[in-house]
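User: Okay, second chain of the day. Same drill as before: sequence in, structure tokens out.
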Amino acid sequence: MISVVEYTTDKKEIWDTFVRQSKNGIFMFERGFMDYHSDRFQDNSLMFFDEDELTAVLPASVHGNELRSHGGLTYGGFITSNKMKQHHMNDCFEALKTYMQGKNISKLIYKEIPHIYHKQPAEEDLYALYKNGAKLLKTEPSTTVFLKEPLKMPKGRKAQIARAKREGCIIDVSNDFETFIALENSVLIHHNTQAVHNASELRLLKSRCGDKIQLWVAKYQERIIAGTLLFVYDNVVHTQYMAADDTAREIGALDLLIKTLMDEFAKTKTYFDFGISSEDDGHYLNEGLIAQKEGFGGRTTIYQTWEIVL
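Assistant: Same drill. Structure tokens below.
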């Protein structure tokens, strides 16, 4: 019998320990990361117990009559222990629906965790979604490099990397979040948007997550001209942001930066994930952006969002 318990702050240690030991949890689901924007979202995270044993947790927020997993995260479905089997997951979904009905919540928006972030196979939730008549809301293409056997880069990309080296570009780790976010926003303004995080938030997250969040930059004549903010997981390195100014684009500074990082993390990680290149819930593909990422030897990994209406 599965019972559902709402997360409260006194359960932080139990939650975080479970996430760290789970087969598909990442540091983004630990409370130190999730709760930095608690003022923006009404947290409604849930814990699922089989008798007295915690078997799954669900990062979630409530939005009117909707439960979303989670409103402030790119993805965040059921996080499960190594003991999770298919029939247990089916029971978790039944318990979740009963909980939602008791709270007058009529809709579940479910953002699955892409398989490349799993430490063990953990797609029991996808079958349970199908069994419960879930509707696919959106499919978004991310670009991922398999670091153990990366595909070849085109000659043009190699030429840019060589030029950046000749120009004397320096690749280094940095804590200058202010300069980086200003650079990022100078790029995003052309798309009528801005970075989700500001420099203060990045400093806060860095202080909570340590080396799991890293800022790497390319410097030219002692000036930061390109950079990327990395989220470093067990198997995956994810570029949360990438930015380059006109000089960087001319001399290939971002190309050198990314190639340097791919070579370095290939020693310890399996995937280098660039994130999605689409808009309008996946209906519009930014072909120039995805081509840039594919030029590093990446190919598509899918991010999907589902809906269950009770």
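The mean pLDDT is 95.

User: Thanks, on to the next one.
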